[in-house]
Design a protein that fits this description.
This protein has 141 residues and is mostly helical. The protein has one domain. It has helices spanning 33-59, 74-90, 122-138, and strands at 9-10, 21-22. A two-stranded parallel sheet has the order 1-2. The protein is globular, with a radius of gyration of 18 Å. The two termini are 18 Å apart. Its cofactor is a divalent metal cation. Pfam families: DDE_Tnp_4. Residues 5-86 form the DDE Tnp4 domain.
Length: 141
């Protein structure tokens, strides 16, 4: 769309809109068709991420019981599992769907109440609008 953007994290409606947290438009009857389409695309992207984490936990089940390691070690452990997963994929060691049987999707902790409007970043609306335009220009998918 002609403007360089940095990476953003995907959040749901409870997170504050920041230029680094992309969240959906508030669902109500005033949403335009393109805003609904944006929310749909954001929800689809979020489900892909959830599925990826579910598969990562199924392949490396140590991630299911990380309560016995220190918080300082956790990022390194997750990164190691990601690297090992990519190595397995590169060497045609495919994911076994049976591994999912012992893994349940877990709801990650998130805020219970929507963030106050004062926490929202006015510049972030420009980022969301730019992404909304981009999704609209991409067509269906």
């Amino acid at each position: 769309m002609g403007k360089a953007q940095k990476y953003v994290l995907l959040g749901d409606a409870t997170y504050p809109l920041q230029d680094w947290i992309l969240k959906p438009y508030q669902e109500d009857e005033n949403l335009s068709q393109r805003q609904r389409h944006f929310n749909y695309r954001l929800k689809r992207a979020h489900s892909v991420i959830e599925n990826a984490f579910l598969r990562l936990k199924a392949r490396w089940q140590i991630l299911l019981k990380c309560d016995d390691c220190s918080l300082e070690l956790l990022p390194t452990l997750i990164l190691a599992c990601c690297v090992l997963h990519n190595i397995c994929e590169a060497h045609d060691n495919p994911f076994n769907e049976e591994w999912l049987e012992g893994t349940e999707p877990t709801e990650l902790p998130k805020p219970c109440q929507p963030a106050p409007a004062a926490m929202e970043d006015g510049r972030a609306e420009q980022v969301r609008e730019l992404m909304c335009q981009y999704f609209e220009s991409c067509g269906e998918g």
